[in-house]
């Protein structure tokens, strides 16, 4: 058990949690930042590291990796205890503090901010068995490095915003790009579909993937067997890279176990980001309230709101109207 008692422990090391940790430390609070993955960054780093984001104030566009790098640099200016590769299993209220149980250590804190994005997410994978070695080089569920797709024949599976956007983006650097979707109509922004239709991306619709195997003549490539919907027609394409974008699965069971009031998979909060539990707050994609907008910009605002409310609850006599310019003096 860690003997230190924190003012605030933040569960979730994505952009919302990172900025909340920075702001809490800026307000001279003792902060723990807990992340289940081995690195900070959350979904922007894991799901769309190389994809460009356009709704962060002051940045016309920024990739997931670039955004996380900037947040990491910002966080390094102040003192925050980071617990990486640390999964929270339970929270328990004891003597006006919270005990956070994890797979590594127990953490004692006066307040908690939950910033776990869409929860414990994992990609929806192909529904059939295939050689696991294919995932080493040829099959991906995330794009971590665009160079893996450069000058290669690639295919994207899926019909949502992410799949359509990646097909358009990868087509700029790949040799040939295809998109595989089970329907003729995409579930994506109209403007993105218009861009896709105007591009050279080959649209393989309506098809589903039936099998993926190494190519017999060149094991650096894979054969993707496609079956046409409501038909016996099949075709095989040979490519270097297959990116599967079927969406993600999240599990809110652990939140129910913590006795948090939920609305669907989301945590209900007040306008000051308070949950139904004392000094437990929620921010970012996991939090919901009337008029909520699921934007990174919104999450960046919710962090300071939660921190300020926690500060007032914990230290009502403390001067909390400092400006950031004076805090660094």
Structure description:
- It is a single chain.
- The protein has 329 residues and is of the alpha/beta class.
- The chain has two domains: 5-121 and 250-327, 3-Layer(bba) Sandwich (FAD/NAD(P)-binding domain); 124-244, FAD/NAD(P)-binding domain.
- Helix content is 25%, strand content 29%.
- It is built from nine helices and 22 strands.
- It has helices at residues 15-26, 42-46, 64-75, 134-137, 161-171, 190-198, 253-257, 296-314, 324-327; strands at 5-11, 31-35, 52-53, 62-63, 81-84, 88-94, 97-102, 106-114, 122-123, 139-140, 153-157, 176-180, 202-204, 207-214, 222-228, 234-239, 241-244, 248-249, 262-263, 266-268, 280-282, 287-288.
- The strands form six sheets. Strands 1, 2, 5, 6, 7, 8 and 21 form a seven-stranded mixed beta sheet that branches. A five-stranded parallel beta sheet has the order 10-17-11-12-13.
- Strand 12, helix 6 and strand 13 (202-204) form a beta-alpha-beta unit.
- Helix 1 (15-26) runs parallel beside helix 8 (296-314).
- The radius of gyration is 22 Å and the shape is elongated.
